[in-house]
Amino acid sequence: MKTNLRLIGGKKLQSPNNSYTRPTTLRVREAVFNILNSRVENSNWLDLFSGTGSISCEAYNHGARKIIAIEKNKINSKICLENLLSLENIENRRNDIEVICKDVLKWTKPNYERNLSSRNMDLNKLKFDFVYLDPPYDVDFHELVLNQLFDCDILKKDSIVICEHSPNLLIKKSTLWETIDVRNYGQSRLTFLINVQHT
């Protein structure tokens, strides 16, 4: 187990000893939370393809109220939970976080029975303010997951979906979402999307 992954502020996190996991870089995480700023506080946060949970941990440290992380790899989902449970004051917030070892493509389907995955909260009623979508760079799951996300009932009217992806990938236009911002950070690009019904 490697511990060279660090949160904003310097806390070390665990990460697996393999090349299959690509944690979001510190530079990108700093950018995300600088852009969102105080809006993260008291928000509901969904972390898709969460890996070892660096984004979920940052959301917790920036004041998110509820955090759900979805990761289908059993080893990574276990590390994600351990990283979250290592955070300050987590013993008083245990019921506010959930790491679910499921396939994101299945979990984001409209009408999927999400509550079967959770002991701590009613996920069929929970709606998210922010969704972070970060599939492997060498596969393009963005469009499929985005279509499912914007077609189901887990987003609020003014939710923001943040896609991390390769600069070579362009998130296509859609009748379901609108691109409000695009930022490049080295080998990563962030695309910020909102529902087209956003007012």
Automatic annotation (TrEMBL):
Transmembrane segments: none
PROSITE patterns: N6_MTASE (PS00092)
CDD domains, per the entry: AdoMet_MTases
One annotated GO molecular function: nucleic acid binding
UniProt KW keywords: Methyltransferase, Transferase
GO biological process: rRNA methylation
InterPro entries hit by this protein: DNA_methylase_N6_adenine_CS, RNA_MeTrfase_RsmD, SAM-dependent_MTases_sf
This protein's name: N6-adenine-specific methylase
